[in-house]
Amino acid sequence: MHEVSLVRNIIRTLEDEFGAEGVARVRDVYLRVGLLSNVEPALMQNAFWAVQAAERCYDQLTLHVEVLPILVVCELCGHESTITNYRFRCAACDTPTKNITQGTELLIHRVSFEEESQPATPSHP
Ligand SMILES: [Zn+2]
Asked: How many domains are contained in the chain?
């Protein structure tokens, strides 16, 4: 399954960035996937749970997937358009364009860590 290897890559990326100990303190992972990235959010979520179950680690992680629309910038008039129904044309002048500026990404946008333990209150005898 395509998504399982993506999930493993994501976890590996986090480990490279924070170390296994750091990843153990991560609560939420926010992914951004473009509509053209061929990533199905529901399959991604299932793959994430499958990897967690299989590897019995990072149980505390929650995956959040945000899907980004496809954006193009027209070479002719410079207008930025959101592409719907895979109709790659400028919304302003109707020129066909493949000048994609968003929609192909698959990236870790943000992670949040578990709350730091409360700092000890200084005692004043
Ligand atoms: Zn245009």
From this structure: 1
Q: Which range of residues forms the domain containing residue 19?
A: 2-111
How do residues 34-67 score in pLDDT, each as one tens digit? 999 989 999 999 999 999 998 887 889 999 999 9
* Helix extents (H) in the chain: 2-23, 41-55
What's at 111, amino acid-wise?
Answer: V
Report how far ligand 1's centroid is from the alpha carbon of 101 (Å).
14
Q: Residue 54 C-alpha to ligand 1 middle, in angstroms? A: 49
Q: Which of the residues in the chain have pLDDT under 70?
A: 1, 116-125
- Residues near ion ligand 1 (CB < 5 Å) are 74, 76-77, 79, 90, 92-93, 95
Phi, psi of 65, deg, nearest 5: -115, 120
pLDDT value of residue 114: 87
CA of 91 to the centre of ligand 1 (A): 7
Residue 124 lies in a domain: no
Asked if residue 77 belongs to a domain, the reply is: yes
CATH number at residue 84: 3.30.2320.80
Q: What is the pLDDT of residue 79?
A: 98
Look at residue 85 and tell me if it is in a domain.
yes
